[in-house]
Amino acid sequence: MEDQLVQVLAQTQLAAEGPRKQAELELRRAANNPAYPLSLTNIARHSSVGGDVRQAALSALRLFIEKNWTADSDDGPAIPIVPIADSVKDQIRPLILDLALNAGDEKRVKTAASYTVGKIANVDFPDQWPALLPTLFDNIQNGSVTQVHGALTVLQDLVDESLSDGQFFSMARDIVKVVYDIAVNENRKLTLRALAVSVFRGCFDLMDTVKEEHSKDVLAFAEEAMKGWFPFFHQVMKQRLPDRDPQSSTVPEGWNGLSALKLQVVRCLLKLKLVFVNLLLPETPHFFQAIWEELSILMPTYEQMYIDTESQSRLEDSDGLPYTLDFLVLEELDFLNVCMRAPPVKKELEAQLAVHASAHATPWLLDLMKLAASYACITREEEEMWDIDVSIFLIGEQSMSADYTPRTACGDLLIKLGEWLNQKALEGLFAYTKNLFAENASWKRQEATLYLLNMLINDFLDIGKTVPPEIGQAYLELVNYAISRPEEPLLRARGYLVASTLSQFNATPAALIDRTIESISADESELVQVACIKAIEGFMQGGNVSGDHQIQAKVVNAISQWISAKDMTDIEESEDLLVALTETIRAAINIDKQVAVSNDIPALDLLFLIAKHGAENWQVTMLICEEFEDIVKIMPDPASYQALCQKVLPSLTGAFNVADVTSDNPLITFAAELMASLTQYASEPLPPGFVAATLPKLSRLLMESNEGDVLRPSAESVKYLLSHDHEQVLNYHDENQRSGLEVCLHIIDRLLGPSIEDNAASEVGGLAAELVEKAGHERLGPFLPKLLQAVANRLATAEAAPFIQSLILVFARLSLVGAHDVVEFLSTIQIDGQSGLQVVLSKWLENSVNFAGYDEIRQNVIALSKLYSLNDPRVTQTMVKGDLLIPTSDRIMTRSLTKQNPDQYTIIPAPLKILKVLIEELLSASGVNFAATAAAAAAELVEDIDDDGWEDDPDTLDLNLGGTKNDLMSYLEASNMRHRDDETQAYLSEFFVNAARDNVANFGEWYNGLTDDEKTKLNEIPRAE
């Protein structure tokens, strides 16, 4: 079997899809053979077999083990388990472990074997595999270098991935001791010692889990362990990297190993701070001083390696351990940032600050600014990347880059310093910056100080702090110097961006704004041009140009000129540049949105041009859709709206003129969204000819497309056409002489059909309800019962909540004016052998509490109250789901058990269910549910507050802070929570008072069927008012 498997495994590596899939199929068949797992093991151990095949064998073995090693499986009976005999397991365990320990130079095989050992250990250790850890310990203590390395790798996998907290704690003392002995042994390779520290760091995650239930024992264990580790950590941090020859492109022997070891020590300290903060606290002054000293010593080396030249960076060894200087500096900067706010360190720094007359006279603060500015300098690599692609520069400016570098770490350091020292941090940075510019230091160092200022005052802006006018003005002088440096484009770019941020605090000279606008097209550097585009948005957002039509025209024309000189196909690929252009044009339009209908200033034309080329960029489309919606909303009169339509309709309808609307075309989706906004806020009546210009295009989309992102906004648009001017719609005739009514009925019929998914058709209910309401019984005639039957049929199978709500609202809106007619109609139809009333009422009452939207909820509540008040025996005899039955078993429900035991409900009459739903709606409308959820959200935010983990601050939340309010409201909006609705509350309160007083529809009898909790809620509401 092994020879056949070798061939099959080799074929699974082929690039050709056909042979590869056939091989994968054969591999699945082979898995049913009892010899399969042991054969894979033997293949992996054959040194004569290629490394790719051996690795594939281990991968297949690991997957087989995950599924079949234990009889318990979450996959359920659908995927049968292939039993593995105990005798086979007994053979596989030592063979795989031996492979992980002794695979020699075949690193991929060794790693895959180690991972497989972890999967087995997760099930078998310690009961079926008691010798596992003793074997590893023996190899670590007495084995060859290869065996020590292999055993540490396996141990790391076990600690990180496989051992449960209970398994770990039973062996914790032995694990920590064996890795400690390797870590402190100076005769061992530095990389092995670093790997040992990495294993120790992984132990903290397991200790963190265990300490919840065994805090005293775990803390005592950690204290005992750290008595040995702390002296070792101090010793490592005091060691200096070997001197490096600036003229050499290589590093001295031992450099990478010591760097890796130091880095693992710092990471271990950061992890310790998260898990056992009080253990680290007394040691923080020593580590703070050691790391500050090392960072100060490494400054010239880092500058030479990464700022002046481009040495290799971000490198890891085969064990995933980083070892280059940039990684070490990054970790040390992070630890310095954390350590700086530890109470013992903070106390000492504040004491030094207090004995000096001012912040800028405090040595440590100026030294810290020097250190931050040194490591915040633009590296050669960044300089070259930005020159190739300005989007990378923009990503960094928006703090959206996935690359966390020493430069961004220094920005974070300044932010935390500002949150601690407030204005003193700004004063210290300005003092250092002023001296730096006075000394005519390197432009990179000057740029770095301005970058740090940008980070600091952007955070000030976020949390509501101010920049004193005198400091702002002094910085503007440095800005004028920076933007006047002809040979240093990156310094010029930074100058414009800093000016833009400063404008959020204090007024900006008009000459500086004009110069920024001019530089959009005049500066020779594309990066500076793009920085100016970004900067001018800040000037406009800061309110410096409010109502200034001249600035508005200048900005739009400057960007128009800049775009006209570019190839838009190149800009298409630069997503962040498209976003920057969109945001700046949007800010310009917001000075006065009437510019949207201007023929002299092409603001809207530019937005649509960017939309055309950026339709696949979700951020661009979102920004433009939001802005377009705002523009349509503020059109003051029908004439302005008509002018807007004349400007935009050709572009929108033109986007629909494609040969194939069935494909997923982002531009069609985008145009459909804009059309929905244009029709939603249309004038009443619509401009003449509006329906003739739009309905044929919308009809084609709705009759041919299957894309939900196209169908939903298009159906909304037709609904809004009916809402704003139903006469124009109903009097319209298409090229085949079909009336507007027929066109709408055809659209609804298709959307209700089984070929359209629930989510795609979620707006059809609103369209159908609008058509029924506006066309009326007379126009619809025999089409009305057919339409309602189709809605009811689709409701019976609907599963998506928005779609269900949409369909139910058809009957809800009809019930507002004719509840009896609705009951009469539903009682006469059959849906899959059941009464239509039974089907629709069941679905209606099950889903009412999940409705969204003020108007929709209010309509639903009123409709249900009218259905109840009918006291119709057909409604009374309809039985629906009541309350959820809570199972008495305390057994943990897995996915398979949940499928086998679905939720059970009581069965109750529909009027009683209506009352239960209305009580829940009354609570929601009164804001009781919202208040409870808001309190829970506030409690959750308290837990997330960053107190840096050093002190047990009281769990309080300042709701006066803008950031806190925003976070809380974002949480509630994301949770789709209902807010207080006084109108709905007043209606329901009156309904229940009248029902109780007049015994409407036997209210007293139904009241007895309510739960005690519901009765209490009902009785409390009047008192709460």
Principal-axes geometry comes out as globular
Radius of gyration: 35 Å
- Stretches where pLDDT is under 50 for at least 5 consecutive residues are 941-947, 952-966, 971-976
> Could you tell me the mean pLDDT?
90
- Cα(first) to Cα(last) distance is 80 Å
How are the strands of the biggest sheet laid out side by side?
1-2
Number of helices: 49
Please give the share of residues in helix.
over 70%
- What amount of the residues lies in strands? under 5%
SS class:
mainly alpha
DSSP, total strands: 4
Q: Characterize the biggest β-sheet.
A: 2 strands, antiparallel
Outline:
With 1025 residues, the chain is mostly helical.
Model description:
This protein has 1025 residues and is mainly alpha-helical. Helix content is 71%, strand content 2%. Strand 1 (830-831) and strand 2 form a beta hairpin. The radius of gyration is 35 Å and the shape is globular.
For the structure shown, list the relevant keywords.
single chain; 1025 residues; mainly alpha; two-stranded antiparallel sheet
What does the secondary structure layout of this molecule look like, with pairings?
Elements: H1 2-11, H2 17-30, H3 36-45, H4 51-68, H5 86-102, H6 107-124, H7 132-142, H8 145-162, H9 165-184, H10 190-210, H11 215-238, H12 255-275, H13 277-280, H14 284-308, H15 325-339, H16 343-354, H17 363-375, H18 380-388, H19 390-397, H20 406-421, H21 423-438, H22 443-463, H23 469-482, H24 489-502, H25 510-522, H26 526-541, H27 549-564, H28 568-572, H29 575-589, H30 603-613, H31 618-633, H32 638-655, H33 666-680, H34 690-704, H35 708-730, H36 740-751, H37 764-780, H38 783-797, H39 801-828, E1 830-831, E2 834-835, H40 836-847, H41 854-870, H42 873-876, E3 879-885, H43 895-900, E4 904-909, H44 910-926, H45 928-944, H46 962-974, H47 982-998, H48 1003-1007, H49 1012-1024
Antiparallel strand pairs: 1-2, 3-4
Helix pairs in contact: 1-2, 3-4, 3-5, 4-6, 5-6, 5-8, 6-8, 7-8, 7-9, 8-10, 9-10, 9-11, 10-12, 12-15, 14-15, 15-20, 17-20, 17-21, 17-22, 18-19, 19-29, 20-21, 20-22, 21-22, 22-24, 23-24, 24-26, 25-26, 25-27, 26-29, 27-29, 29-30, 29-31, 31-33, 32-33, 33-35, 34-35, 34-36, 35-36, 35-37, ...
